[in-house]
Amino acid sequence: MNSLSLHLDGAIIDGAHHMQVRVYYEDTDFSGIVYHANYLRFMERGRTNYLRLLGAAQSELFAEAESETPGFAFVVRAMQLDFLKSAKMDDLLDVITRPVDVRGASITMQQEIRLGDQLLMKAGVKVAFVSGGRARPIPLPLRVAMKADVA
């Protein structure tokens, strides 16, 4: 992957979103490694930018979802984390997000944080699609754009 070709919010490559994150001093703990909760922030940015790029590539997609389910949002319902190795200040991390399963009102995403070829962290994240404070089926155009439609 050529880092110079990546958009500020990352890029979708072969169905997976890749986003680079630089580790800053504020991301680390007293020992100089990334504080565990900051990996959650990096992954949230990855999921958000993934959805942003889907909307940028297909602007009518989110307009259609909004007309079907006004005020929609994605909220984290469940998360399984596996911390494998630590990142340090100045590391350039690759946050990878890919949809793996759609079930009505939720989508499961697999996320990884890598430093070069090294896998530092992996996560399974179940995200619910809500509108008006209630779970709603994910609109078909959005499922198709994620290439995760299992209907």
Low-confidence stretches: 1-5
Strand content: 35-45%
N→C terminal distance: 32 Å
What's the total helix number? 3
Count of strand segments: 7
Helices and strands, in order, run as EEHHEEEEEH
Largest sheet: 7 strands, antiparallel
Helix content: 25-40%
Mean pLDDT: 84
What gross morphology would you assign?
elongated
Radius of gyration (Å): 16 Å
Category by helix and strand content: alpha+beta
Describe this structure as you would to a colleague.
The chain is of the alpha+beta class. 25% of the residues lie in helices and 39% in strands. The protein contains three helices and seven strands; from the N terminus they run E-E-H-H-E-E-E-E-E-H. Strand 6 (118-131) and strand 7 form a beta hairpin. Helix 1 (36-57) crosses helix 2 (59-68). The chain is elongated and about 50 Å long. The N and C termini lie far apart (32 Å).
